[in-house]
Amino acid sequence: MARILAIDFGKKRTGIAVTDELQIIASGLTTVNTNELLSFLKDYVSKEKVDLFLVGQPKQMNNSDSESEVLIVAFLKKLAKTIPEIPVQRVDERFTSKMAFQTMIDGGMKKKQRRNKALVDEISATIILQSYLYNQHI
After folding, report:
1. Which of 44, 90, 93, 115 could disulfide-link to 56, CB 3.0 to 4.6 Å?
2. Domain total in the chain
3. Strand ranges across the sheet with 13-19
4. Could you tell me the CA-to-CA distances from 21 to 18, 32, 48, 105 in Å, in that order?
């Protein structure tokens, strides 16, 4: 088996999480500047076997797309051209940032650490990936 890589796409920063090779455990990998995301992914897949990219799909409360969806769709087109051999699946990412922030509080992180938006993005990607894994095993 190979890894599943989750992407919490952001205008400035993108959080990335990945599974182990057995696709059991989701772990935060890193946060990268969004303008460096494609080159990061190309480099990563040259070193690690990846079966699937999971990309968060931000939705409004009424189920309509959020304004950042336009940027994500443009990125997905570039990703499909750059790494066509790895399929992409979209995952509803509503509330992941709030859940990530709560996870930081519950984990006892100090207020200064919780202001680290890059860490919030990485935890959000991990939550997206963990929820996908959970739903696969139901």
Report:
1. 93
2. 1
3. 26-33, 13-19, 3-8, 50-57, 88-92
4. 9, 22, 9, 30
